[in-house]
Amino acid sequence: MRKELEQLDRSSHSSVEPITRDRPLLPEESAAELEAVFKMLGNRTRLRMIYALARAGEMCVTELAEALDMKPQAVSNQLQRLTDRGILASKRTGINIYYRVVDRSVVSLLDRGIYLKEV
Asked: N or C: which end of the chain has fewer CB within 10 A?
């Protein structure tokens, strides 16, 4: 698992700029938007979905539901929230809708969180 995380780390952190003293303080509006992002990610089901999608590249609702041992409708509802937030994107192929992570900074954040949990 650590090897997977290191690969995700290398591929997703290169464009993330660190917090520096040169940046202004976080305005109230920006803090509220950031809070909404963390609330979106502060859900174990959505975290598991993001992780599964990051590992697989893309999955359809039924594949993801099976992998997470959930009902497709429950998975679909959460996927819609993540898509609305711009974290995931979808494409239709025949009768299936496939989802993939498009916001690599979320994968980076998940990667860091897993690392913090392990140390």
From this structure: C
Is 34 buried (19+), middle (13-18) or exposed (0-12) by CB count in 10 A? exposed
Question: Could you give the CA distance from residue 103 to residue 21 in angstroms, rounded to a whole number?
Answer: 26
Sheet containing 59-60: order of strands: 59-60, 96-101, 88-93
Q: Domain 2-11+29-118 belongs to what topology?
A: Arc Repressor Mutant, subunit A (1.10.10)
The H-assigned helical ranges of the chain are 2-12, 28-41, 44-56, 61-68, 72-84, 104-118
State the pTM of this model: 0.76
Instruction: Give me the chain's average pLDDT, please.
Output: 87
CA distance 116 to 119: 5
